[in-house]
Specification:
alpha/beta, TIM Barrel, eight-stranded parallel beta barrel, two-stranded antiparallel sheet, 12 helices, 10 strands, globular
């Protein structure tokens, strides 16, 4: 991994493309458009066309590893080919939500940040902050720790009060205490929780980046989410609402149109927050 800091990488792509839109590359091989199904690697072909159509409208791409691992070696080939096709300068986020101890965590970290070469990764802190240390040992990366996720089940544990604070805030505080000075720490906070997003942003300041999933299909409102985030570093992720915008031969053009609509909505939110 390059010695370039993640913050510098973020500022560079923000200056180039002017948007904080992150596009999730979560192609379901069972539902691909007919026009790519005859390709040697249909998922890779689909992803390449999406990237070609949208790379000037986003700051990052976020492949979810489950959609590749389920296909075995063909899926891993699709993932590596996808990463090779993403233009230089655009940030890549490996969405794997890994969480394990000791040597296993080290192997996971090496796989994501060395073997695949992602610039950032999502991790699960449930087993303790010590399990996250192998990720922070890598240079120039961002480690997005799950805090308050966008799914309805986040209420089951993440909002539960622990000694007077919701669990997600205790996770945030513990990680800031341990890793806040590294310049590599980020958090995942869902767009479906705008009030809590505003609370987290105020708590951690503007420099710690937030990965904000849940826009589009999951119901998060782009303008409201941007206002909640204020001026902080962020990646506003949209997956299905962009890559699934069309199912015909023009799927890539429709994906571009959908991405552009989210870029405009995010810009409206930024103006309202200013």
């Amino acid at each position: 991994m390059s010695a370039t800091t993640f913050a510098a990488r973020y500022q560079s792509i923000l200056a180039r493309n002017g948007t904080r839109l992150c596009i999730g590359l979560d192609a379901d091989a069972r539902n691909l458009p007919e026009c790519v199904r005859s390709a040697a690697n249909p998922v890779l072909e689909f992803n390449m066309r999406i990237i070609d159509a949208t790379h000037d409208l986003c700051c990052a791409y976020k492949p979810n590893l489950a959609f590749y691992e389920t296909l075995g070696s063909v899926g891993i080939d699709a993932l590596t080919g996808t990463l090779e096709h993403i233009p230089e300068g655009i940030i890549t986020i490996g969405d794997a939500k890994r969480g394990d101890i000791g040597n296993t965590a080290e192997r996971y970290a090496n796989a994501m940040l060395d073997t695949f070469g992602f610039h950032a990764v999502t991790v699960n802190p449930y087993m303790g902050v010590d399990t996250l240390e192998p990720y922070f040992a890598h240079d120039g990366v961002c480690v997005f720790v799950l805090a308050l996720t966008s799914n309805p089940g986040s209420n089951d544990f993440q909002r539960r009060a622990v000694e007077g604070s919701p669990l997600y805030m205790r996770v945030i505080n513990a990680c800031v205490e341990r890793f806040g000075s590294t310049g590599k720490l980020g958090f995942v906070v869902g767009a479906t929780h705008p009030d809590e997003l505003a609370e987290v942003r105020a708590h951690v300041g503007n420099d710690i980046p937030l990965l904000v999933p849940g826009l589009g299909t999951q119901g998060g409102d782009a303008e409201k989410t941007v206002r909640a985030n204020g001026g902080g570093a962020a990646f506003f992720n949209v997956s299905r609402a962009v890559i699934g915008a069309g199912a015909g031969d023009d799927f890539a053009e429709r994906a571009r149109a959908a991405a552009l609509s989210f870029v405009e909505a995010l810009s409206e939110g930024s103006r309202a927050a200013a």
